[in-house]
Amino acid sequence: MLREISAGGVVVRASSEGWEVAVIEPNSANAPQEKRSEKGRKSQKIVLALPKGLVDPGENPAATAIREVREETGIDASLITKLGDIKYVYVRSWGDKQRVFKIVSFYLLKYESGNIDDIAEDMRIEVRCARWIPLDGAVRKIAYRGEKEMVQKAQEYLEAHALS
Length: 164
Description:
single chain, alpha+beta, Nucleoside Triphosphate Pyrophosphohydrolase, two-stranded antiparallel ribbon, 3 helices, 8 strands, 45% strand, globular
């Protein structure tokens, strides 16, 4: 079985209403799926995820997380701590259709500068948009179980440590 190693970031910033987290709406295979509203009208289910990507040769996972956050959201962030790893198996939907064992290391990052969704045009293939959402309640809005766990760990860390 093939193996992939990726890294991603839970980027937080303080706002007047509390902590916010940077999320992306992926493009491509994870595009919103059609669903019906209560009145039978078509609506779009928005998929929200955390920025992440493959660790390049010679790159450490923390540096990957910071790079992927910059590429996928347009913001610069600094490392606070490692939150944990997510491990899962998926089947490639392209090319060889192989099963892949994937490990994604997630890091808690603090916003430093930049404008959310100010990303290169060639990244729009991967990212439909990036935005800030309130950290409180983000667990319910993130699409993927492992990423929900990382957001929960970020909240717990912020509650236990004084950050500003």
